[in-house]
Amino acid sequence: MEVSNMTTVTVFVLLGLSNNPQVQALLFVLFLAIYLLTLLGNLLMVLHFCGPNVIRSFACELPPVLLLTCSDPCASIASILTTMSVLGLGTLFLLLGSYSCIITTALRINSATGWNKIFSTCSSHFLMVTIFYTSGVLRYMIPASGSALEQVLSMQYSVITPLLNPLIYSLKNQEVKVALRRMLARKSRLPL
Length: 192
Known about the structure:
- The chain has helices at about 20-45, 60-65, 75-110, 110-140, 150-170, 175-190.
- The longest helix is centred in the middle third of the chain and has 35 residues, at about 75-110.
- It is extended, with a radius of gyration of 24 Å.
- The chain is mainly alpha-helical.
- The protein starts with 20 loop residues before the first helix and ends with a helix.
- It has 6 helices and no strands.
- The mean pLDDT is about 80.
């Protein structure tokens, strides 16, 4: 007769989040708000389509899809703007707050070397955040028209920024810089 483990799992532990009850309550409220916003957005986006089925975009994003609807898209647009304002701009304000703390701390340092280290570390992150948020906000805050600019902005924040991200951060590493210089020097010596 074969003996097997008959243990019944009744509790799951999600590692990575705090065991502090106050933090858990805060995270619960935050995740509940995000879930309810998502649910509300999905409920508001019941659209009827009766026209063409060609989306002038490289991805199936909501603004170009709204151009194809024959029902009133006002609720969907309001949902997009609300979500963008709460989640997108909320995280932007958190980032700006952290940058202001970093700048305040940097201004207290009397060493030019310390300033250079702080600002060289933060400059690449600030550049990527600026590119991402600018293109994302422009993409979703400007009414959809199917223009080429919209496609460029979509490509910018969904493909180009994530593609450039590791490159920009890796150029902070001295070994990567040396290897890149060697590779470029070698390629410049090759005949075309």
